[in-house]
Amino acid sequence: MNITDVSGTATLSNGVKMPYLGLGVYKADGGQEVITAIHDALDAGYRHIDTAAYYYNEEGVGKAIKTASLPREEIFVTTKIWFSRQKYEDTFKAFDESMQKLGLDYLDLYLIHWPHPEYYLEAWKAMEELYKAGRIRAIGLCNCLQHHIQKIIDRGLTVPMVNQMEFHPNLVQQNLLDFCKKSQIQYEAWSPLKRGALFHDPLLLELAQKYNKSVAQIIIRWDLQKGVVTIPKSTKKERIISNADVFDFHLSDEDVKTIDSLDSNDRTGAHPDHFLEYFAKKGIK
Asked: Signal peptide location in the record (predicted)?
């Protein structure tokens, strides 16, 4: 991944160019809040917006794209299918519902949000059909470990183009990152800033001082130098702009390894093998 500027891209296995810095909109209100955040991001040079059916703000995302000053083809849009909708026929219905809410003719990237152990392969087969029909430019996974991906590969199905995972200095999962790279699957980070929990880490504060940058900027730059597409979430204009101010410095190889050393296998979200129990405890279906 050649890191150049905010509009730079990673090239997926099928040749589609995916902007390596995007705006995540998890927990953003589906009304004016998400519309304003997206417009602020596009004005700052972002060209990648990441949402999901589970975020309940696809309509707002669609309105933001429709009212943006940029043509649709310049904006890379991702949404995801929730685990309760992953039976084969239901996948088509869920996709159509998302597209109707977004108001789009095609989708740039569609992801399986969490892999339902019984049904995610059904969803993948349906997504393959949508991809081959030209309704989606790329298909991928979210919260899938190597064994989930291997099942798809072993069945001779389309190899996922993207795997979006919780990824930050406390959760590197280097073996999975290496596997995806070897399999030509673009790794992508959700919760790259660990929801602010890393902002007071002494080592990261030291690096922030060394490079005259914020801790958030150090982490985002680390993501990119690790070859990981990243989608930090914010609805505040100044933070959206600040998160993109990472192209005027370069972390040394030694400092990248130092950040790697913060890995403690600590998650803010569910483990991909136990998410059904995790969400059940929260009353989420």
From this structure: none
